[in-house]
Amino acid sequence: QYRGRSLTWTSILLSVFHAVTSFYVPGVAPIDFRQNDYVEIKAVKLTSSRTQLPYEYYSLPFCRPQTVEYKAENLGEVLRGDRIVNTPFQVFMNSEKKCEILCDKPNKPIKLSLEQSKLLAERIKEEYYVHLIADNLPVATRLEFYPNRDEEIKKKERDVQFEHGYRLGFLDSNKYFLHNHLSFVLYYHKEEVEQSKEHTFRVVRFEVQPQSIRHQDLKADKNGACTLPEPPSFSPQEIDATKENEVLFTYSVHWEESDIKWASRWDTYLTMSDVQIHWFSIINSVVVVFFLSGSILSMIIIRTLRKDIANYNREDDVEDTLEESGWKLVHGDVFRPPQYPMILSSLLGSGIQLFCMILIVIFVAMLGMLSPSSRGALMTTACFLFMFMG
């Protein structure tokens, strides 16, 4: 009877555990795409290293879908200035597109008003970047340069770097040019499956090559398709801030197979140089702080100890050196209460609060719990720990 009861309880527990299903944190779980599955392209924000003011994607006159839907964001995303919204880009898994018009009107360019033209020119002048995401991967612009001048070595040794997002446009000879054509290059990894099952794909990299092409050079038809001209035979799309302009937004999609697995797809993005970091300003500030601190401390020490050092160097007055005077009497003030105890306790408590918050955030990030795929998790955790450590 005892053995039968134990078998019964074991079967009940196994049936309960069999019914339990696992789940993933949203944005962290891999998404398997089949052939021609829809891959949604979303817009995040517009950023600039000059103004430090982020704007949402549709603050500029870009093409809009029929229904604009904003993604529900966490606290960290809101503090970062993210406003994730859908876009009219139609991208399908492993499906090529040579050139396609983005807006609703297939073969007619968009007419920008004078205010919209001024706003675009101002954003281009302020060096704004556009940030898009596909399968939670941020878009990146490939920057290639050759470190060696020899032509044969150039082809072999090529240094490739990436930067977040793509430039809204560029300034040349006091003229503003808009990047109105986007060439998307998406890399996928083919998952290994059994012979009887269909292959699935996972997105492992999202790149873009922006181009500025005048709408007269883009040969558009009524079906929404267009033809890209060759590089020497077209002019860039100029934005004149003094009058109305006509712009045609187009895009192309190219897929490439990659050996990078889904678990390692963030390695390329983590090695990017962030345009938001002002290294020169940081180094300059650090050098100035160290220089001022060292000069002030040395001046205080020299002025305070000059008299005592002079007394010690005298050979005549040996008895005077035996008496403690001046700065040597400070040990008597250690146990006295400070003049402003509330300010001291507040600064001390806030310092310990910040120190504990930073320490725990760094430790949790080292464990891999704050993945870059979960947007805003780092800032949300920092805000929560700052309040909790109070």
UniProtKB/TrEMBL annotation:
Residues of the signal peptide: 1-22
Any matching Pfam family: EMP70
InterPro entries for this protein: EMP70
Recorded topology in the membrane: Multi-pass membrane protein
Biological process according to GO: protein localization to membrane
Keyword Isomerase: no
Spans traversing the lipid bilayer: 279-302, 343-367
Compartments where found: Golgi apparatus; Membrane
Keywords, ordered alphabetically: Golgi apparatus, Membrane, Signal, Transmembrane, Transmembrane helix
Tagged with keyword Ion transport: no
GO cellular component, one term: membrane
Entry's family note: Belongs to the nonaspanin (TM9SF) (TC 9.A.2) family.
Name recorded for this polypeptide: Transmembrane 9 superfamily member
Species the sequence originates in: Latimeria chalumnae
Organism taxonomic ancestry: Eukaryota, Metazoa, Chordata, Craniata, Vertebrata
